[in-house]
Design brief:
mainly alpha; 13 helices; two-stranded antiparallel sheet; transducer; single chain
């Protein structure tokens, strides 16, 4: 009996109402914002590029999170436990929520890797990011989290459904499982499968981009200094500029420019060519990468409170609030797109104002919708 009395239960109704209100805010803002993001890319070719395939994948995961959070809103407002007859609905909602968190993390890692390859290895970018490869990649972004969060529960390692401890549709705590089934292994699989590898990819990618850009800037300054000296020396400089364009940028699919400047220096003693190659990355790509890094930083800030709670055994009373903060990430990304990316902002407002004829570079879908009217 003592153990039962010491077991924490989130049964304070005023606190549950507070959590429910936070969930409602996430539901309303997230559903609206992520739907706008998806529609914007669908309706304008200006936003249709490789990076935005993964941005849309992130928006779909966030939209599903916001839609299924409605089950937890109902669960929080209920004065009694979830009805047994609809337990399966709660199990599905809990599984989708957990899986979508995994999809978000892996998609953020994919976006970081995408920017790394685009900026530092342009030729490799063209070989990798082709439609069949992208389709398989997106499928894996959903399959891997499914295998980590839902598949173990299907085979009896952990369980999904209504958790009486926190009054939510999620994974069920040990003390409420009807059979001998420790959730420690299930929790370990989730944490080990979702967090370390994507975070390593993200930190490696963005750190490599920073180092590459700094090195690139130093090389460019040195090149300009050498070129200035050559203007007053005996040698002459012949400069060729080779412009390589890719079809990827978050702002404009045709605006990515990576230029390679090749300088050949002829000496008076020998008729030999010494070619030096230095690359300069467009400011647009750097700005896009910075903005996408902000998306990751916001997610990390929302994840930290929940991660801290998992590290402490006595954090049960705080976990519902940490989960609410984690879910808030699902409605923040569209705000970042609207404030940091001018093209997204413009198309968002045109959609909200129903000015379909003003949307730049209309997609075939939008043209068909216009024609049907």
């Amino acid at each position: 009996m003592d153990e039962v009395e010491e077991t924490f239960v989130f049964d304070s109704y005023p606190q549950r109402v507070i959590i429910a209100i936070l969930f409602i805010v996430v539901f309303v803002l997230g559903t609206t914002g992520n739907s706008l993001t998806i529609f914007a890319v669908m309706l304008s070719r200006k936003l249709q590029n490789v990076t935005n395939v993964f941005v849309i994948n992130l928006a779909v995961a966030d939209l599903l999170t916001c839609l299924t959070i409605s089950f937890n809103i109902v669960a929080m407002f209920r004065t009694i436990d979830w009805p047994a007859a609809s337990h399966w609905m709660c199990s599905i909602a809990g599984g989708i929520l957990l899986m979508c968190i995994g999809v978000s993390v892996y998609t953020l890692a994919t976006i970081a890797l995408n920017r790394y390859i685009l900026i530092t290895k342009t030729s490799l970018f063209r070989k990798i990011y082709k439609p069949p490869v992208i389709a398989v990649w997106v499928a894996l972004l959903w399959l891997i989290p499914f295998c980590i969060t839902i598949l173990p529960a299907i085979f009896g390692l952990g369980a999904l459904g209504y958790n009486p401890k926190y009054k939510t549709c999620s994974d069920i705590s040990d003390e409420y499982l009807p059979h001998i089934n420790s959730t420690e292994a299930y929790d370990f699989i989730q944490v080990a499968g979702i967090i370390p590898i994507p975070l390593f990819i993200i930190f490696f990618s963005y750190l490599s981009i920073i180092l590459y850009v700094r090195k690139n800037a130093k090389n460019l300054l040195q090149y300009k200094a050498d070129r200035t000296k050559s203007m007053y020396g005996e040698s002459t400089v012949n400069t060729e500029v080779l412009s390589i364009s890719t079809s990827d940028t978050l702002e404009n699919g045709n605006a990515t420019n990576v230029s390679l400047e090749m300088t050949g220096e002829r000496t008076s003693k020998a008729n030999t060519l010494n070619t030096k190659r230095r690359s300069t990355v467009s400011k647009r790509e750097i700005q896009v990468t910075k903005n996408l890094f902000i998306v990751f930083c916001v997610f990390l800030v929302c994840l930290i409170p929940y991660s801290i709670c998992l590290a402490y055994d006595d954090s049960d009373p705080v976990i519902p609030y940490a989960v609410a903060i984690l879910f808030f990430n699902s409605c923040i990304n569209p705000v970042i797109y609207a404030t940091r990316f001018p093209n997204f902002k413009k198309i968002f407002f045109l959609i909200l104002k129903c000015k379909w004829d003003k949307i730049p570079e209309p997609s075939p879908l939008l043209l068909r919708l216009r024609g049907s009217k």
